[in-house]
Amino acid sequence: MQTAHRPTETPATAWLRSRKAEFSLHAYDYVEHGGAAWGAEALGLDVHEVVKTLVMQNEAAKPLVVLMHGDRQVSTKNLARAIGAKSVQPCVPEVAQRHSGYQVGGTSPFALRKAMPVYVEASVLDLERIYINGGRRGLLLGMRPALLTELLQAVAVHCSLP
C-alpha cells in the first residue's frame, strides 16, 4: 500500500495518514479530459465505484463540494433543494482550484485549502469500497465510503440525475 519514500504523498494522503485512515493507493497514467471513466478503465475498476469530487457554489457564491458516482451527473436543482439553496452551479476551473487548493482533475475532498461543506450522493455510501481522487492527477485512493461521513462529516443527499 505505501512505499518507504512515498512518491504519491499529497496533502490528501498526509491528512488521511494523520487520522490513521485505512486506504490504498492506485496510480494510473492521467489523460486530459478522461475523467472518472478513464481512471476506472485504466485501473480495471467499475466507474460507478469511482467517485468524482466536484467544487460547486450556491447563489451567494459560497463554495461546496459534491461527491458523485463517476458514471452519474449532479442534478443542480435536486442538490439545491436538498441543501436549502436557491441554486447551485459548478465553479469555473480557476475558482475551483482557488477554493480547493488542487488542480482540476486532481481534486480530493481531503485537506482542502478552504473549509467547505461536503455533500455525497447517498447511494455512494451503499458501496462496499470507493475510489476517490488522492490529490493529484492520476491517483485514486481506495477506501470504505464511511470515511466520507466519519472524517469529512459529508452529508448524504439525493442529487444524481436519473
Task: Explain what the structure shows.
InterPro entries: Prolyl-tRNA_editing_YbaK/EbsC, YbaK/aa-tRNA-synt-asso_dom_sf, YbaK/aa-tRNA-synth-assoc-dom. GO terms for molecular function: aminoacyl-tRNA deacylase activity; aminoacyl-tRNA ligase activity; lyase activity. Belongs to the prolyl-tRNA editing family. YbaK/EbsC subfamily. The protein has one domain: YbaK protein (Alpha-Beta Complex), CATH 3.90.960.10. It contains five helices and eight strands. The protein has helices at 11-18, 35-43, 76-83, 93-100, 146-152; strands at residues 24-27, 50-58, 63-69, 88-90, 118-121, 130-133, 139-143, 155-157. Strands 1, 2, 3, 4, 5, 6, 7 and 8 form an eight-stranded mixed beta sheet that branches. It is globular. The model is unreliable at 1-6 (pLDDT under 50).
Structural class: alpha/beta
CATH class equals: Alpha Beta
Report strand %: 15-25%
Number of helices: 5
SSE blueprint:
Layout: H1 11-18, E1 24-27, H2 35-43, E2 50-58, E3 63-69, H3 76-83, E4 88-90, H4 93-100, E5 118-121, E6 130-133, E7 139-143, H5 146-152, E8 155-157
Parallel strand pairs: 2-6, 3-5, 5-8
Antiparallel strand pairs: 1-7, 2-3, 2-4, 6-7
Give a brief description.
With 162 residues, this protein is of the alpha/beta class.
Provide keyphrases for this structure.
162 residues; alpha/beta; YbaK protein; eight-stranded mixed β-sheet; 5 helices; 25% helix; 24% strand; globular; disordered N terminus
